[in-house]
C-alpha cells in the first residue's frame, strides 16, 4: 500500500521548485497557462459566430448548457501567422468556473513543470505577437515558452 502523503509531498516539492504549465501551440509558437487557470480541454466544439464581435472573438460555444465566448488565440495576441479559418481548433477552457472562456488553439501540448529559475519577465519584443498579453517566458532547450497573462487574454476589451 502506498502512503498518499508521500506522493502528495513529492508533488508539492515539484511544484514548489517551479510552475506547472499547460502548453498549447499556434503555428511555431508554444504558449502556456498555469494549470490552475485551465478548467478543461475540448476538441472541435461547434462555434456560433456573433455579428459585430471584435475580430478575435470566434463566436460562442455551448458547453453542457453554459455559453462561453470562444477567443481565437492567434488573433487575440496579434500573432503574425496565416490562420486556417476552416481548422478544427482545440478549445482550452480557462478562467473561473463562473466566467470561463474558450481559447482556440491549433494543437495541445503537455503539462510541464517549468523550474522557477527558468521563468523570466517577457522581453520588450517577441517577434510576431503583442507582448502585452505575455506574463512570463521560459527558454526551454528547444524553444521559447510564452506564458500568457490569462486575465488580459480573457478580458473583453
Could you characterize the architecture of this molecule?
- The chain has 157 residues and is mainly β.
- The chain has a single domain, classed as CheA-289, Domain 4 (OB fold (Dihydrolipoamide Acetyltransferase, E2P), Beta Barrel).
- The protein is 14% helix and 44% strand.
- The strands form two sheets. It has a six-stranded mixed sheet with strand order 8-1-2-11-10-9. A five-stranded mixed sheet has the order 3-6-7-5-4.
- Strand 10 (134-139) and strand 11 form a beta hairpin.
Radius of gyration: 17 Å
Q: What is the annotated CATH architecture? A: Beta Barrel
User: Helicity, in percent?
Assistant: 10-25%
Structural class: mainly beta
Domains, number = 1
The overall strand count is: 11
Main β-sheet, spatial strand arrangement: 8-1-2-11-10-9
Quick structural summary:
By secondary structure, this protein is mainly beta.
